[in-house]
Design a protein that fits this description.
It is a single chain. With 46 residues, the chain is an alpha+beta fold. It has a two-stranded antiparallel ribbon with strand order 1-2. The chain is elongated, with a radius of gyration of 12 Å.
C-alpha cells in the first residue's frame, strides 16, 4: 500500500503502521515496505 492510498482512505486521521523492511541511509532509518495495521478510529472502537 502506498502512502497516498492511506491518505485517501483515512484523511485527517492517525494510523498505526508496521514496518516490514527498513534500511539506513546517512544515519536515517527509512521504511522500504510497510503495512497498515489500524486507524485510530478503529482502535478506539474496540
Amino acid at each position: 500500500m502506498k502512502w497516498n492510498e492511506v491518505q485517501n482512505l483515512y484523511p485527517n486521521e492517525w494510523v498505526v503502521i508496521e514496518a516490514i523492511q527498513v534500511h539506513s541511509d546517512d544515519g536515517l532509518r527509512l521504511v522500504d515496505e510497510w503495512q497498515l495495521y489500524k486507524s485510530l478510529t478503529t482502535l478506539l472502537k474496540q
